[in-house]
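Figure 3 (text version): structure tokens given as input.
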């Protein structure tokens, strides 16, 4: 039996993020009967993300919060990879938004870097790694990607992060324009979670 069998029995889980948009998306992917708590419920600050990969940073967050809270913890590390910018901002996607988490500023940085290359669009993908961390110190990671392009000007206000400049392959609207429930069925986060959700017990 898979080591994630514990997830069949849990009724509480900690979602290791203080980002309201990310918390909401992860919450909506989990079974409704599971009580979802946040780091704020335990007065926890997010740990420093010192790894060089999405997987490494997701693992740091899930294990840190699991050990501090005593609860099985789900975290994700995700970001935008722009092909013409050598896959930047990548793991630094949130940090490009600065201390104030101003993603308008982050998107403008992407635009300016593309302009230097005389471009206003590029192939791109969102990557998400979901980590399940246990208080005892073990973790499991699952990766999902969604491919498409970024282009300017930004459109839509329904998403968060870089959603307003990303259009997935096969779509005509940016993630920022899509209905959130529909976006949650095609997103990188959903694709990562799809690999994990079979271990949860659904009602």
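Below: residues designed for each position.
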């Amino acid at each position: 039996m898979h080591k994630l069998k514990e997830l069949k029995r849990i009724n509480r889980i900690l979602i290791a993020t203080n980002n309201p948009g990310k918390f909401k998306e992860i919450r909506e992917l989990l079974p409704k009967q599971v009580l979802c708590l946040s780091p704020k419920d335990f007065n926890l600050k997010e740990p420093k993300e010192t790894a060089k990969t999405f997987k490494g940073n997701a693992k740091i967050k899930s294990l840190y919060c699991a050990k501090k809270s005593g609860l099985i913890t789900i975290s994700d590390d995700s970001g935008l990879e722009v092909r013409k910018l050598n896959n930047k901002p990548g793991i630094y996607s949130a940090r490009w938004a600065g201390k104030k988490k101003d993603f308008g500023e982050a998107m403008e940085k992407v635009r300016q870097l593309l302009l230097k290359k005389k471009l206003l669009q590029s192939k791109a993908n969102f990557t998400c790694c979901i980590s399940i961390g246990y208080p005892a110190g073990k973790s499991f990671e699952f990766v999902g990607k969604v491919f498409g392009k970024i282009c300017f000007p930004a459109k839509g206000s329904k998403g968060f992060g870089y959603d307003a400049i990303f259009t997935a392959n096969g779509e005509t609207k940016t993630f920022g324009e899509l209905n959130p429930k529909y976006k949650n069925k095609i997103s990188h986060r959903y694709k990562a979670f799809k690999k994990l959700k079979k271990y949860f017990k659904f009602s």
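Residues 54-69 form the longest helix (16 residues).
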